[in-house]
Amino acid sequence: MKNKAIVSKKVGKDLSEKTVSAIAYVYMFLFSLLALLPILHVASKGVSSGEFVTAGLVRFFPRGFQLETLKFIILGTGFLPAMKNTILITGIGTAISMVTTILTAYPLSKSEFRGRKVILFLYVFSMIFYGGMIPAYMVMRTLGILDSIWACILPFAIIQFNMFIVKNYFEALPSEIEESAKVDGAGDLRILVSIILPMSTPVISTVGLLYAINYWNNYFHAMMYTISESMRTLQVYLYNLINTSSEVAMNLASGDGMTNLTSAGLVAAAVSISVLPILVAYPFVQKFLVKGMTVGSVKG
């Protein structure tokens, strides 16, 4: 009787766990669908015939499939120069930000570092209180980097929140490993490069992704610090396209007879292409995202 009771209890527990798992999968599927459907809607409008887009008949699948809109966005507008500028800013900026963040977080993670509390206070203070747009613009002008990619990079050379994530992760690592390396004669830089960084892959990937997304989506600094058409970034290009898409589509339809090019189709095509690099890069680092944020947010 006792064995039967144990078996019955185990079967009931397994059944309840399967039920909970099934409900969780259903909810996750529905939430994933909610996130996916708007993307499908925008992408479908970018490759659908103009008559269907204008009539509002495009939902989640293309109607009257055509690539004329995509071809015009890529070859007939300033999309490629804007994409090139954004890729340069994102790549160079992320590399610089990661170097400055790691080199700042590592010494600040050591309790024996002199002046540590004062420096941490200054970082927290600057994170809470911001000087404003005018002082920031004056700094960029004084440095002589207005209308260049550096004006979009240097303001994010280090973000305090990201630095604290990395610092807290470094503090949670076992100190015995560094002590053993020092006994073997390794210096601080060798320990950081050969030991600490390989152990910190999750948080490095997470913060790198945060920096990359921040640079990629940055609109405000590009609009405020750049002037020339050659320095236009992707976000500024999209903003201008949204404001002028109706006029562009009307001129093309009346002049060149390109009836497939509608205002909504042009915007949808440009937005669809602009998010592709992030969508391609994200799967390679997403597995580190939750782990890096969780561990990095808890002080060890």
Global geometry? globular
Number of helical regions: 15
Instruction: Give the name of the CATH superfamily of the largest domain.
Output: MetI-like
**Uncertain stretches:** 296-300
Q: Give average pLDDT, whole number.
A: 79
Main pleated sheet:
none
Whole-number total of structural domains: 2
Q: Tell me, what is the CATH class of the largest domain? A: Mainly Alpha
CATH topology of the largest domain: MetI-like fold
Estimate what percentage of residues fall within beta strands: under 5%
SSE class: mainly alpha
Elements, N to C (H/E)? HHHHHHHHHHHHHHH
Radius of gyration (CA) equals: 26 Å
Head-to-tail CA distance between termini: 49 Å
Overall description:
With 300 residues, the protein is an all-alpha fold. The protein has two domains: 1-36; 67-300, MetI-like (MetI-like fold, Orthogonal Bundle). 77% of the residues lie in helices and 0% in strands. Helix 1 (2-46) crosses helix 14 and helix 4 (79-108) crosses helix 8. The chain is globular, with a radius of gyration of 26 Å. It starts with a helix and ends with a helix.
Keyword list:
disordered C terminus, 2 domains, 0% strand, 15 helices, 77% helix, 300 residues, MetI-like fold, mainly alpha
SSE arrangement:
Elements: H1 2-46, H2 50-54, H3 68-76, H4 79-108, H5 116-128, H6 133-143, H7 149-153, H8 160-172, H9 175-183, H10 188-199, H11 201-217, H12 220-225, H13 234-255, H14 263-274, H15 276-296
Helix pairs in contact: 1-14, 3-14, 4-8, 4-11, 4-13, 8-11, 8-15, 9-10, 11-15, 13-14
